[in-house]
Amino acid sequence: MILTNTTVLGTGVLGAQIIFQTAYHGLPVVGYDITEQALEAANHRLDSLVQTYADYFDAGDRSKAQAARDSIRLSMDLADAVKDADFVIEAVPESLDIKQGTYEALAAVAPERTVFATNSSTLLPSAIAPHTGRPEKFLALHYANHVWQNNTGEIMGTALTGSEAYEAVVDFAERTGLVAIRVLKEQPGYLLNSLLVPFLQAASHLLVNGVADAPTIDKTWKLGTGAPKGPFEIYDIVGLNTAYNISSMGDETSKKFAALLKSEYIEKGKLGAATGEGFYKYN
Asked: What are the 3-hydroxyacyl-CoA dehydrogenase C-terminal domain coordinates in residue numbering (predicted)?
């Protein structure tokens, strides 16, 4: 089983990166989202990634990155987006209800051969598998933000995932420039987010409990550990919508952080580095 024709559901910050990473490594890819506004934003994200990839891989030569950009197709029609798909990567908002509904709609229109993978950051694939219509061809493939540089691909199946589909996704990850990380059993957050999410949560609790402000927390972490970025700088990179969705499902303090994100940042259009402002301002 070779996975070639790829569709990515969700064209947000990470979805757009997954689309571009796949196209840059020579595979046909379609990006799907549900509104014209989302696709317009996706076009801007994809355009901006041309120079990012040119600088990172090709010493500023835009030719290969531009060819990748030109090969990408976007669609608001789910059946159209997946009609030729060997592989569908889902990167919709981090809500179990949204993901389950997405897979129910997807199962009705995708070819029988198509393998599905969720990019969920924190949800277990076994909570989604019954809604896919093909649990033996469903698993998780988790990308890290800034995928061209932080190129881990965490691959995690369920008890029902077939070995053929699993190995095909390992092969896909390697062919698209990722280091395939085999996660041997289901774990919320895989490896990376099992480490990262508690760290970010601890920082958010310090903030909402009034222990220190975001810049002080970041400065303390960077000075004390030598880390290049603090937790709130990482929140801005991840995107505050993602932080909100994850925090909304947490304990009471996490929910207070989610409320803070919504009222002080998200509702004001401050979604993180991708929009030019989150906890910090960006050029």
From this structure: 189-282
Asked if residues 280 and 232 have their Cβ atoms less than 8 Å apart, the reply is yes
Task: For residue range 207-251, list pLDDT tens digits in order.
Answer: 999 999 999 999 999 999 999 999 999 999 989 998 998 899 889
The fold for domain 195-275 equals N-(1-d-carboxylethyl)-l-norvaline Dehydrogenase; domain 2 (1.10.1040)
Annotate 108-133 with b (16+ C-beta within 10 A) or e (fewer). Answer: eebeeebbbbbbbbbbbbbbbbebbb
Which pLDDT score is estimated for 11? 97
Closest residue by Cα to residue 8 from 105, 108, 82, 95: 82
- Tell me the helices (H) and strands (E) count for the chain, helix number first: 11, 8
Cβ atoms of 60 and 155 closer than 8 Å: no
Query: 102-119: per-residue pLDDT in tens?
Result: 999 999 999 999 999 999
**Is residue 101 within 8 Å of residue 130, measured between CB atoms?**
no
Q: Please state, in angstroms and rounded to a whole number, the distance separating the CA atoms of residues 272 and 263.
A: 14
Euclidean distance between CA atoms 12 and 269, whole angstroms: 14
Alpha helices in the chain (DSSP H): 13-24, 36-57, 63-71, 78-82, 96-109, 163-175, 192-208, 214-225, 231-238, 240-247, 252-264
Distance from chain centroid for Cα 56: 20
Q: Are 220 and 212 in contact (CB under 8 A)?
A: yes
CATH assignment of 6-182?
3.40.50.720
Residues 6 or more apart from 181 whose CB is under 8 A from it? 152, 153, 154, 155, 190, 191
For the chain, give every domain's residue range.
6-182, 195-275
d(C-alpha 276, C-alpha 274), whole Å: 6
Q: Which of 13, 124, 11 is nearest to 73 (CA)?
A: 11
Q: What is the pTM of this model?
A: 0.83
